[in-house]
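Subject: Protein record for review, amino acid sequence with backbone structure tokens
Why sent: The fold of this protein is of interest and is recorded here as tokens.
Notation: Tokens come from a learned vocabulary of local backbone shapes, not from coordinates.
Attached in line: The record itself begins immediately under this heading.
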Amino acid sequence: MKYGTMLVSLAILLPLRLSTLQAAEKPSPLKVFILAGQSNMEGQGVADLDGKDYNQGKGTLNFLLRDPAKAPLFKHLKDANGKWAVRDDVWVRYKLEDGTLKAGPLTLGFTPYGGRHHFGPELQFGWIMGDCYENQVLLIKTAWGGKSLYKDFRPPSSGGQVGAYYTKMIAEVREALANLKKDFPAYDGGGYELAGFVWYHGWNDGCEPKTAVPEYEANLVNLIRDVRKELNAPKLAVVIGELTGPWTKAPGEWGVLRKAQAAAAARPEFKGNVLFVETHDFVRKAEDSPCPGHGHHEFANAETYFLVGDALGKGMTELTRKP
């Protein structure tokens, strides 16, 4: 190898090695956050797809990064070479419904879609948690599209048949914690702390105004209690993300459901460790978004998903970094 070529190779490899070393040198314990919900938590935000199928790329991350007024908010998501940034000190574990496991350092692509063209609230949430803690951070995503709290995530304390996806959520959290070194070789074996639970959900229950909506507050309260009991974390910090979407100011069942989410967080027993986070101001116009016909997915607007993750992250910081 020529001397000049060797220097170039070292210049490329050194930042990567330093990044890995910095991740490994983070102090223990590992901070673990569970991100649960349905398709909006799965991640529908579009990063860089364009053409007629994506409204010529309007409302994607790439589109926003070309806007001088908005680009500063998103610039940390790309590295110096213009590639999507990767954070080695924040890890994500997401198991798709078909059993496919996605595990690795925080970047785009931890969604049901192939490639790295989509993202969910975990992206900016992970950036905030990584900046918040000196520790390594793990995000465990347990989210599946089209699942209700009334049936699919139904917690044991609500009575009736326990939801299959409640059981699946708990099982996947335990599986993740039992395989830390296998899934994340940089894990130092120094233990972990269940630091927080994020619930971003609501669409399917809102579609059942006579059954699911009236029970939503009670079921959500029971979910929080039962998750804490199952995971032996009695004061686990919980952030509830408001149901987002173009119906955020609609009356009827949607208004009742959003109030139920807020009311659950406001229960006296949860004072200081459960927080409701508003997201209705983050909805963008359909015509300014990649998927104008997908109102149930917030039109796949990247700014919406980024701001939701940002709000959830700041809410979690408020709960977990109190003196």
Notes: The domain at 28-320 is CATH 3.40.50.1110 (Rossmann fold).
